[in-house]
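hiii so my PI (J.) wants the whole complex modelled not just the main chain, which honestly fair. so below is everything: three entries, each one labled with what it is. i double checked the lines twice but i was tired so who knows lol
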Amino acid sequence: MKPTSPSSGSIAGIIAPRPTRRGLLVGGSALGLSGLLVACGVGGGGGKKGGGGSGSGSIRALFMQQAGYSEENIQEMTAAFMKANSGIKVTADFVSYEALHDKTVAAAPAGTYDVVLIDVIWPAEFGTKNIVADVTDRWPDDWKQQMLGGAVTTPQYDGKFYGVPWILDTKYLFYNTAQLEKAKVDAAELDTWDGVLTAARALKESGVKYPLIWSWQQAEALICDYTQLLGAFGGTFLDDAGQPAFNQGGGVAALEFMRQTIVDGLTNPASTQSLEEDVRRVFSSGQASIALNWTYMYGLANDPKESQIPGDVAVLQTPAGPVGRPGVNGSMALALTATSENQDAGWKYIEYLTSQPVQDKYALSSLPVWESSYDDPKVVETNPAVVPQAKKQLGDMILRPQVASYNAMSQVLQAEIQKALLGDKEPQQALDDAASEAAKLLES
Amino acid sequence: MRPSRAYLIWIHVAAVVMALVVLAPFAWLVISSISPPAELLSPHPHWWPDHPTLERYRAIFGSEGGGGDVAANFRSAMLNSFVVASATTAVSLVVGVLGGYAFARLTFRFRRTSLFGFLAIYMLPPIALVIPLYLALANLGLLDTKIGLIVTYSSIVTPFCLWTMSNYFLSLPRDLEDAARVDGCSRMGALVWVILPLARPGILTTGMFGFLLAWDEFLYALIFTSSTQSKTIPVAIAEFTGKHSSDFGLIAAGGVLATIPPVLLALAFQRYIVGGLTSGAVKG
Amino acid sequence: MRSTVREADRPWARQGAGQHEGRFALLLLLPAAVVVFGVVIWPVVRTLVVSLYDVDSAMPGSYPFVGLDNYVRVFQDDRFYTVLGHTMYFTLVSTFLELALGIAVALLLNAPLRARWLWRSIVVLPWALPTIVNGALWRWIYNGQYGALNGLLDTLGISETPTQWLGEPFLALNMVIIADVWKNTSIVVFFILAGLQTIPSDLYEAARVDGAGPWRAFWRLTIPMLAPSIAVVLILRTIEAFKVFDIIYVMTGGGPASGTQTIAFYTYLQAFSNQLFGYGAALAYLIVLAVFALAMVYLRILKQNQLAGVE
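here's the output for the full assembly
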């Protein structure tokens, strides 16, 4: 599980030798950028070095649109922050989630951003590849007690902190109360995955063609669903030695469960081409009775403008499997980039955004990372259906593998799991193949 | 010779079939853009919405600017795209026409090599160049600017123009040019006064498609732009499909609007593109 | 009208034209060279250099020099062959369909249709639709749950059971091709249409006088005369198809079961998601080589001796 470390070698700054300002002025004339070639050569120049800075000045932050806090929320918070810290000017940029990783990577060598929002699966990658800064020394010890357990682990890798948790999320079970009633299914049955199957069969009998819908498109969304099931069935991604173990026990049982729901006609076959938004669409149009999804679906599925089943939506903690009921950790954190020259100011901004009063104020958009917030009546009031479930679930979360080559590993798993779901391979075979590929990735 | 009646009927039937195939998906886009979300999600498609709505167009045009609303950014994106695509086309067309003529009509060393050198740039997938280009633009202060996009796009659209124009020049008869030369026109004079007017359909077609290459480009724009000052249409539309809030109707409305400028452009230039090429001047 | 580039054809070329032409060519080409290479030469060279190193982060640093190892690794990578297969299939099928349909439609639009401008305007529409919207539109049309295609088949009474158009790897690849062909046939139509304008009508008269039927005139006259235009769009479409990315990104994300992963998409995954920049750079240069090879084959087949660059 050791991260790939750049071994010895001679060339400095292959991708990003930073041309000097002077080189730039020279090169910036007629032939434009090609002047840079002369100015810096292949091996010259060093990378941009990050630094604390003066604690004031201008900083630039990269967020995502949608999900969690809205653009308006963030602009409001930022305005309030700047009012309280007159020496700091913050520019906030927004991209869609899909572009967040790529934009962060592309911008890293140039040092465009000081603060970036990172997904829970990136600290290992961004930490070892020196894209975000290690902020372990800045982390106050008491945060570790005051924040929920799942929050604390979000920005952690290899014992170090690479950010501060900000958006806390996991997948919950949503169901259509009207359809359950019609099929005479007791919602208490949905407490276990076995019960979900029984309920789905009854729902199918009662006329719901495909009671279950999932986000099983070849994408990270598939791994999120799989992770949650893997946890419930007692599997692990990696064993204690850091070797792939999802092809044993619970990992296989989870995939067999997924495949079986397709074979039995309980799962909508469109699931293998669906992302979270497709799940929401199908569920909101009343064409599925039960679905796993992030917190946000509750509000939208109950919104008459967006949904045909407003008022019929209920949310539960994820069902229990034979071993437990951990929710997949789908949280996000705010990080300082390694190339930021104004890290102190950036850190003040992060401290502000993640502070309890600010998070409590915007609890309707995204639930706070602070444990005590969940007992605050004002916070509970914002979303009375979700907060009690969240309180139970957010303390029990399962992480996807924290390895630097996670993305590559996830791609392999996505492809193999899909082969099993489509019936091209037996689940055991697919996961064995994925495990041997993953082992190679972990080695390199 | 007058075409026979049967032939005329046949071609009109064929044209109708073609129009149906082309229009059906587009019509569905338009219909989706005016269907309320609930109807979009009905198990059987509503071929015409029971309650058509212009809500999304109103959201795009009506809401306040200022960056708060995803849809409101659309208007500035539209303008940005237009500026970027027009400037890119202008630059690429001028240098592409000149260079294309050289490739078509002049003999010089490394002609073939240099033409393929240009084409190779066009063949490289943008993904391969994104990071070094980002750094270069950042150093020149051109990140998140329209100029930065124009500079980048010109480097893609120019090889396209060179390639199409050089081949178009080759398809033109040489005789007129030769005649002009014999008449004492200078080389440049022959190019400007004789060849260019002759090549107008080729130039306009190339320009039209060059325009769309820039109008359509997604990856560079996604990575290089971050504010309403420079975000282009494809980026703005992609933002409608964020992780958690996609409404196909909104994408459809954006798509319909994004289609209008290129269509107007094509219509404006169409009669030049297919209008009788040399109006009888070419007598082979 | 086939013009040759023989010196003898050009009276003025005789007096020391070689040098003169070279200088004039340089003058004409310089602006293009500045616009293109001024911008990309540094990134292009940089990427080439990166492909020789084991670079696994966007950040500057010391990375081991590995020579051609990245290229060797590409050829040892099973997934490379899979995505190359998808890409070749996508490229050959989509360019062939676009070309065949494009020529047919161009001939139609060149025929004495009433309200010709109307039909021509219609053909412009798909071209004007941005690729990412096109991808989203077709993803929506193919949707197995509430898509228009299933709805249409149901309405017409052809099939009541919804098909998951993007649910099977090979089917999905073909459905993506249809979406791509729908949009990109436009460009072929207009290039062929422009090419048709350069065919003098008296040639057809002559052919008719010689007793050639329309079919024969098409193969013996139209196609040879169109060959340059065909070569141009064929190569353009091949280049575009080989680096196809946006529509895949929007429609399928490479799924299901990697069935629609193309080489450019795979390059994106390796270079961006996985930050294997050395490997991704090697893949990118192999794309260029592969497209070159394909283009050469086409030019051979079309025997386009008069094309610029192919003496």
